[in-house]
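pls read this stuff:
=====
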Amino acid sequence: MQQQVISRPFAEADAVTMDDEVITEQRPVAFPKVFGYLRYAAGGPSRHAALVDCLAEYCRQHELTLCGVFTDRQAAMDVRSPAFVGLLDALELPGTYSAVVPALSHLGPKRLVPERMRQIAEKGTRLIVIRSTGMSALPTRSGHAKPHHHPGGA
């Protein structure tokens, strides 16, 4: 089946109509919703505030809406700690795009990271790691590892 293209010369009336339209920058735009996750056991309130600010600034720079931050304050954790379960529940909310962490170490001790990454992937959302060493293996929905480059910077 062949498509037919109909064109006509640009008319001055078209320009007036376009000028009357509100441009995107002047309309409320919903940015993708993300939820932060932190793990910290030391440093006090100022360290926690700095980590939250890191997440907020990253989200602002990348036009993401940081809807909340879940924090585990215990050094030794189980795979399903209270704050991580809260994150997983939040990732199921409609329109949620991603979880965001300052670094992979915030997902917990090395032995927990792959399982937590798998659980985030099972929710159908992404994992954004602000500071990364480059390449790492992220599990897909099927649970198989897939090479993925995390966004860098912070």
